[in-house]
Structure formats: C-alpha cells, structure tokens
Amino acid sequence: MSAASSAASGGGKPSSSRAKPANKAEAAADWADGRLGIYSLAKSNMRKIFPDHWSFMLGEICLYTFIIIILTGVYLTLFFKPSMGEVVYHGSYAPLNGIRMSEAYASTLDISFDVRGGLLIRQIHHWAAILFVAAMLVHMMRVFFTGAFRKPREINWIFGALLLILGMFDGFMGYSLPDDLLSGTGIRFMEGAVLAVPLVGTYLSMFLYGGEFPGHDIIPRLYTVHVLLIPGIMLGLLVGHLILVVYHKHTQFAGAGRTEKNVVGMPLMPVYMAKAGGFFFLVFGVTAVISAIATVNPVWSVGPYRPDQVSTDAQPDWYMGFSEGLIRLMPGWEIRAWGHTLNLGVFIPLMIFPLVLVAIWVYPFIEAWITGDKREHHILDRPRNAPVRTGFGAAWISLYLVLLIAGGNDLFATHFHLSINAITWTMRIGFFVIPVLTFMVTKRICMGLQRRDRDKVLHGRESGIIKRLPHGEFIEVHQPLSPAQLHKLTAHDQLKPAELPAAVDENGVARKVTLSQKLRTKISRGYFGEDGQIPKPTAEEYKEITSGHGHH
C-alpha cells in the first residue's frame, strides 16, 4: 500500500505543508480554523482597502451609536418595569412622594435617582438614539447627493432607508415607555391617528391598547416591540448592510489613480481598524459628555401620565416632529355620512406621513428608469454635477424643515412673540412653495458651480498677479491646473437626453410610442438637456486655448 492510499484510508498520518503549532494557542487557532475557516476568511478581507474621506465617517457614527444604544439598553432593562399597574411612589424624589403612578413611571424614577449611574445611562441611551437617527439621515443624504445608491447598491439603499424608518419608530416607542405626561401625550397622538383610519380604526385602537384608551397593555406591548422586535430586525439589516459594503467594495470620489475597478485608500488591518477603534471611543466619549451636560427627557419634571391632562410645550423628538407638523398644518376637516365620521384633519396627514419618507426612498429607482443606465458605478458624483438630483434632495430637506417648524408652532409663537395663526398659515403656504423655490435655487447654484469649473479647466486658476502687456493692456495671470485637478473636474460622465424612437421602423411600419416612453423622454430632457447641465470642456477645447494664448 502506498503512503497516499494509506493516508486516505486512515492507516497513516496525512501529509501537510503546514508547520507544527508552536504552542497551545496556535494549536487552538488551527483547530478553530479547520472547522470555521476563519483564517482564509480573514486573509481575504483583513487587507481590504477603504478610502480615506471624512464623509465616510458618518456611516461609522451610525454603527457606533447603535452599539451604544444596545449596551445602555441592556443595562436599563435590568431595572425598568414595563407595567401599567398603579403604585404609590415612595422614593428619593420628594416632590412626587405619595403620588399614584404606573410601575413603568416609578421604575424610571428609581433608575434616575436610586440606581447607581442610572440617570447617566438613561441620558446616554436617549442621546445616542437622537444622534443615531441624525447620523443615519445625514449619511443617507451623503449617499443620495453623491449618487452612491446607483447599481449595484440599490439593495443597500433599501436597507439604509428601512434602518432610518425603523430607527425613528423605535425611538418614538422608547421615549414613550416611561409613561410620563409628555410621552403619554405622544401616545394619545398615536391613538388619534389610529382612530382616523376608516372602518377599522376603532378595532385597531382597542387591539393596540387592550381596551379603551389608555388601557393596560400599551406600555408592555411597546416595550416588547422596542426591545426585541425592531432591534432584532435592525441588527439583521445592519449586518446585511455591512456585508454588502464589503462585497461591493467602497465607493470613492474621483481622483488620481481612482477608477471604477479599484479602490485607493488604506487596508482594513491594521490602519483602518486602529482609526475606527479610536473613533468609536471618541463617539462614545462625546455622547457621554453631552449626556452629562445637557438633560434630555427629564420625566420627573412633568409627572406621571393622566388622561385628563396635557403637558405644555409637548414636543416629540426632532425626528418625529414632522409628523406633528403635518397634523398641525392640516385644517380640521371632517366628512359625516351614513352615521360615520371621517376625520380628514388626521387621516390625510396620516397618508402623507409615509409618502414624505418613501419619496426619498424610491428616488434612486426613478432616476435609474430615467437614465436607463445599466452600468456599475463605484466613483461618486460631485453634487454640482447632478443639479436636478441635488435640487430634489435639497427640496426634500426643506420640506422636512418646514414640517418641523410647523410641529413646534406654539413654541415659535411664545418665544418670538408671534401669532400662532400667522405661523400656521405661513407654514401651510411654505409646504407647497418652499420646496419648489429650494429646488430652483439649488439647481441654479449647481449650474453656476459647473460654469465655474468649466472656466477653471479652460483658463486655469486666478493667481492675483497683474501683468502689463507690451501694448499697454493689463491682464491677470492664470495658473494652469495640475493633471490631478483637471481629472477631478472632468472625470464625471454627462449623459445625453433620451430620444423617442423613429416614427417608422426599418420596414416602414409605424412604431407605437407609449406614454411611458414620452414621459421618460420629457423628464430626461430636464435632467440632461441644456437646462440640466453645462457641457464640460472637451480635450480639443482645452488644447486650443492652452496652445493658442496660454493661461492669462
């Protein structure tokens, strides 16, 4: 029997090119690698290149604040009691001693005043949630304005949008759990929205609250969804999001040596991991400092929730403020028919609320349909080179801000001594006018920046040096741009507007042009026609100017 056959049949030691482990730790690592494939996986990914640009840190802030939320949330669950059972408070906060309240509110007071470090952990948890949603929104806007959502990253865009929406709703449920007067007003707001649903609104409300408002089940149910369901879904989406980032490789801005087929930057190990680790502790430290200095959601100052009271200056966290703004802007219209009342003042905002979120969510697919571009994109756009897209993004942000101001119209009225009716009507008009104006102004700014880039490429950069020519004319000397700067300003693609097919085909048969084709062609002209982009300078134009007169 040969040595090979002996080894195959188990009669001898298999040959191996790997050296004998030097110690027990290396032997344990070999044992794990033989069963999990960690070594080969790490070898192929630990040297993965990541580009170095400040805007990419926005996604890291999202990840790190999510980790902070999970860590602090686990600590808080050890002491919080998600029950609406009534108790009489006897604790360290003297102003509320002897007051009847729910166990949820009482346990929140205990966490704040009796649990060691409890108040700081509560503050860090809440501030991290605020920063988490803010970082996600800004990160998505960076992805949107630079076109990082294009093929092959459409699925990752969907994951990010879902994370943002779930984060907003989970935050709403989180600050509703203490059952204080402020959060109870928010839950009452939610009940009004549910009741506005035609036909089934009453049944949904009874199911959600376990009876007539406020019922006895809403806090335990919000707790289950807040702690288990939504974080579990978000964790899965986050893992999928990161896997796709690694799989597709990272996007990068145009620059010297950067193409659609490579990534210029630093390896994951050890450079990027060291910087990422330091940045995590920096984010954690800044969050802790903010939490120690600025109090958020001081539930003890408003007292426990009572259905017959409404707290003054009641405002949700900023990321849910636009839903409040929709309700306050809408007139109190009602329709009564066949013994039923349809509350349009709440139902219409309830329908617009998801549309505001979905509008930015579905845009990448609309743009892909308009452009018909099937290529993979790994080089990012400069926002100025996509004026229509940048205008739409700015218009969406302006609409969000209008609704945010409308949601706090009472605070603006009291703080600036203005009429609340004047503010409401201004925001009603602004709801329709401001996004349009923002789109137009943003687009014109982008077009102006494109013209400046074109002039800079053709004539160089102004040097501030004044020169007098032999015939007496004074000119300013322009310095030519470096090849790297020229590449940065001219690396972007400029698509041509779509055109309708010929009226007849090659056989002389009339072609049928669909309404969809006509619409796509018309929108495409707005995107890529004369009013949608400034033609970038060609190589021939550059050579003609530089060879003929030089830069002056």
From TrEMBL:
PROSITE patterns: CYTB_NTER. InterPro entries: Cyt_b/b6_N, Cytb/b6-like_sf, Di-haem_cyt_TM. Pfam families: Cytochrom_B_N_2 (PF13631). It catalyses: a quinol + 2 Fe(III)-[cytochrome c](out) = a quinone + 2 Fe(II)-[cytochrome c](out) + 2 H(+)(out). Its cofactor is heme. GO terms for cellular component: plasma membrane. Its EC number is 7.1.1.8. The chain crosses the membrane at residues 54-80, 126-145, 157-177, 189-211, 223-247, 268-294, 346-366, 386-406, 418-442. Keywords: Cell membrane, Electron transport, Heme, Iron, Membrane, Metal-binding, Respiratory chain, Translocase, Transmembrane, Transmembrane helix, Transport. It is a multi-pass membrane protein. It is found in: Cell membrane. This is Cytochrome bc1 complex cytochrome b subunit. The lineage of its organism: Bacteria, Bacillati, Actinomycetota, Actinomycetes, Kitasatosporales.
